[in-house]
Amino acid sequence: MKQKGKLPHKVTYIAYIASSIDGRISKSSQSNVGWTSKEDWNFFQKSLVKMDAVIVGRNTYKITADRLRRRNTIVLTSKINRAKIKDKVIFFNPEKSNLKKFLSSKGYKKVAILGGPKVYNFCLANKMLDELFVTIEPYIFTNGIPMFSSNTFKKYKFSLQSIKKLNKKGTILLHYKYGN
Amino acid sequence: MKQKGKLPHKVTYIAYIASSIDGRISKSSQSNVGWTSKEDWNFFQKSLVKMDAVIVGRNTYKITADRLRRRNTIVLTSKINRAKIKDKVIFFNPEKSNLKKFLSSKGYKKVAILGGPKVYNFCLANKMLDELFVTIEPYIFTNGIPMFSSNTFKKYKFSLQSIKKLNKKGTILLHYKYGN
Fold first, then answer.
1. Which of A21, A176, B72, B142 could anchor a disulfide with A150, C-beta 3.0 to 4.6 Å?
2. In what residue span(s) does the Bacterial bifunctional deaminase-reductase C-terminal domain sit (chains A, B) (predicted)?
C-alpha cells in the first residue's frame, strides 16, 4: 500500500519562565531581562540547544532578538495577515493561520515557548504547553508583568516533576507537566 | 536609675501566602479560598497557633471572619479614622495611627500577615515582613488577584530558607527571610 503522506507529527511544547516570588516576569513589556541569576541563564541556554524552534511574542522578540538570532523563531503577532519570513524568523498571526499545523509541517519535535504573558496564555489555552520550567528568583516586585495574562480566570492543572535549587541565594527551578 | 518604661519590643512579622504557579492568590477579592490543598491548610492552621495576632485587609477579613473568630485580629482599613474594637477584632487605619507602635504596645511577639495583596504590600513597604511562607499549588489561573499589589515596581530581596514538598500532586512550601 502506498504511503499517502506523513503521519501526524507530535510536537512537544515546553515553556520557560523566569519569575519573581510574586509571579512577575519583568518590570514592563519593554524592559529587558537582566535581573535573573546566571545559574538560570545557564540552564536556559543549555535547554535551548535541544529545541528545534522557539515561540515568542512581538515584545519579547524585540528585546531578545539579538540572542535568538541563530534559532528558528516564530514571532506571534496580530499585526499581520499573512506569515512573513525573514531568515530564520517567521512572523505569524495564529488567528489567521493554523500554528500547530505549521509547526508540525516544519518537522519540529521540540518547541520552546518563551513568552510574554499573552503568548504563554495562548499556548496554554490551545493545548500547546506540555511542560513548564519555572525559575523563581528570590525577589518580590509588587508590580510588573504577570507570568500569564488572560481576560478570564481558569484552573489549569499541572503536576510537579522536580524541584532544584540552582544557587546559594535560593533561586529555584520547578519542572511541571500539564495535567494530573 | 529608675526605669522610664518598657524597652522597645521586637515584633516578628510572618506572611503566609497560598498561590498558583503564576502568582495568583484567588479569582477575585470577594471569592473564598477553597482551592488550596488540605496539606497547606494543615500547615497554615498549625502555624497560626504560634501567632499572637493576625493582620488582614477588609476583603480578606470578610471572607475569613468565621475562621479567625478566636484570634487577635487587626483589620487594616482606610474607611475609618479612629480604631474600632469589637471583641478580639480591631479595625485599624494605618494612615491615621501608628500600627507598629500599637502592635508593640499590645506585647505581641509574632504577628501573621494573611493578605490580601494590598496588605502584603503595605507590610513589605513598611518593614513589617520578616519572613514569608509561600505555598505554591500546582495550578495556573492566567487571571485573578496577584500576591502583591502596588502602584510601583520595586525589587525586594529575600533569601530562601527551605523548600518542602507537601503532597504527591506537588504542592510546595517555600520559606523565605527578608534581605540577603
1. B142
2. 14-168
